[in-house]
Amino acid sequence: MTQRGETPPLWKQFGWYVTLGVILYVIVGGVALAKVPDQLLANWFPDLSSKERAAFLGPATNAVLFALGGTIALVGVGLSLSRHRQELEAAARDRVRLRNDQEREQSRRQEAEIQRGTETERALRDRFVTTVNLLSDPSPVNRQAAIFALGALADDWSAFGKRDEVQVCIEVLTGYLRAPRSDDMLLPLTEEEHAQLDATERREAQRTTPQEIAVKQAGYSVIKDHLKRENPSNWCERPLNLDGSHIDFMVNLRNCDIDEGAYFDLHNATISNDGILAFRDMTVSGFVDLENLKVVGGYVELRDLKVKDGAVVTISGTTVCADGHVSLEGAMISAHGTLAYGVMTLKTGGSVNTPDGILHEEPGV
User: Fold this and answer.
1) Which of 107, 171, 281, 356 is spaced 20 to 30 A from 315 at the CA atom?
2) Per-residue pLDDT tens for 56-110?
3) Would you list the domain boundaries of the chain?
């Protein structure tokens, strides 16, 4: 059935005319076969007798038949060409229609993709707001959940292609870890500790509650997981600002990678009350700032640290006291790498193990 808007073939447009033409052609052809051969012979050979004319009648009839056949052939060729043109036009219309359908489908897919992207981004932003609100929740369990949710959210932003949003998640996470400890995060001092310490030392000497330690360790665990180069959404090339953090618990950052252009900042951090900051076997191609650490009865482990060409690790200006210890033993510094550990201050039993394996217990290392 011919579709609306399409031009029907000629035989459909002029069906009755064609039928009538065929009938007339048959009638005219019959008349021509009956009359024309004899008239042709009369005109071509007027002197022929009736007997001689009868002998040439067959060839004359054949000539008329050939003329009629040629006419039919010409009409057939014309009709074939017309039909071929119609088929070409139909094929061209099909191609245009197919192209239009493909364009509409592509447009529909693009609109759907944009819609999905918009909905995904809205959902990620809603998750971010919920997670940030949880970080201020009074319950340590909820804050711990928020820490892990931030890491997962950063991964989802990375998969979504929003690198800036990944850094926002990192800033919120590190901001929580470096924030001053509130009173509800601290254990009270004993009467003896209170009496032995002056007012400026008492707050720093207070230990973090076990519940808050679990929250903080969750944060450092998220950081460690993302400082592995094999992690597809790793943070090895990103800035991590933990300036002024207070660590009186185990922070395990062993076997992590700090790549070129990255900045890991623990400037002015305090390692106290048996806290451990472990950078053992870390590979550094960027910059690690441990300058002005205060190690009060804690332990900083940089054993077997690998400092690559162009990398800088500085722990200068550190104060080590109250049986605190810093280990730099076995550190491997490339020809153009830098490990700055000079101008350190040792007090009351503090010690430092240098890359040369020499233990310094005298003040003024």
Assistant:
1) 171
2) 666 766 676 667 667 777 777 777 887 888 888 888 999 999 999 888 888 888 8
3) 10-112, 136-360
| Beta-ladder partners of 299 | 276, 325
Give the span between the Cα atoms of 259 and 227, in whole angstroms.
Answer: 9
Q: Report the alpha-carbon distance of residue 56 to residue 153 in Å, rounded.
A: 104
Alpha-carbon distance of 185 to 38, in angstroms, equals 128
pTM for this predicted structure:
0.72
Are 305 and 339 in contact by the 8 Å Cβ rule? The answer is yes
Query: Percent helix, strand, coil in the chain (nearest 5)?
Result: 50, 15, 35
> What are the E-state strand segments in 223-316?
239-241, 246-247, 250-252, 257-258, 263-265, 270-272, 276-278, 283-284, 287-289, 294-296, 299-301, 306-307, 312-314
Structure tokens at 70: 């040629």
Hey, what amino acid is at 16? W
Chain Cα centroid distance, residue 256 = 24
Q: Both tokens of residue 332?
A: 């491997």
